[in-house]
Design a protein that fits this description.
With 189 residues, the protein is mainly beta. The chain is built from 3 helices and 13 strands. The strands form 3 sheets. The chain has a 6-stranded antiparallel β-sheet with strand order 1-2-10-7-12-5, with no helix packed on it. A 5-stranded antiparallel β-sheet has the order 9-8-11-6-13, with no helix packed on it. A hairpin with a 6-residue loop joins strand 1 and strand 2.
């Protein structure tokens, strides 16, 4: 597995070695200890989640506040998504900056998104299946979100290659009403 540190400190991209032949493809999606050195700690995953989304669905930007902050290892098991992480850590030199890349069943790439980041994704295909392992259990009282189109963050959703027109992405009511990062109060201080 190729492990690549990304421009936002702590964010890591994992690309598996794929073994393809006439039957299909095989790759290892997880091995305990593989990511620990790049993450700077021994990781323990306690929960795994799965979502299935229609093309044009945008989920996020979500996080959990300490002491229930979650690190997430995210991958697209089927279809394609444009996955986005935003550094919301107080005192971070990349605070307020974002990183995005395509995760797909073809490329097998995964993102390690450490605690202190807001996370979201845009489904690029119908039936996009996203799986993510979490380092902390879901804790509703610690849940937070940031508006997907916060001008202060400036995510360039057009880079995803998906044109959704004037209607915008399909959002949950909660995501549509999410506060800006400034209104959220920089949740990781």
């Amino acid at each position: 597995m190729k492990i690549e540190s990304l421009p936002l400190k702590g964010l890591v991209k994992l690309t598996p070695h794929q073994f393809r032949d006439h039957r299909g493809v095989f790759w290892e999606t997880w091995r305990q200890g593989t990511l620990d050195e790049a993450a700077g700690e021994a990781l323990e995953f306690v929960q795994e989640n799965l979502s299935i989304s229609k093309a044009g669905t945008l989920r996020g930007l979500h996080f959990q506040r300490a002491p229930h902050a979650q690190g997430k290892l995210v991958r697209a098991a089927s279809g394609r998504v444009w996955d986005v992480a935003v550094d919301v850590r107080e005192g971070s030199e990349t605070r307020g900056q974002w990183y995005a890349c395509e995760l797909s069943e073809e490329n097998g790439c995964q993102l390690w998104i450490p605690p202190g980041f807001a996370h979201g994704f845009l489904a690029l295909t119908d039936g996009a299946v996203v799986e993510y392992r979490c380092t902390a259990f879901y804790h509703p009282e610690s849940e937070g979100s940031v508006h997907w189109n916060d001008a202060q963050i400036g995510i360039d959703w057009a880079q995803s290659g998906l044109a959704w027109g004037a209607k915008g992405p399909a959002l949950s009511e909660k995501d549509a009403a999410a506060p800006t990062l400034e209104e959220a109060g920089w949740p990781f201080g």
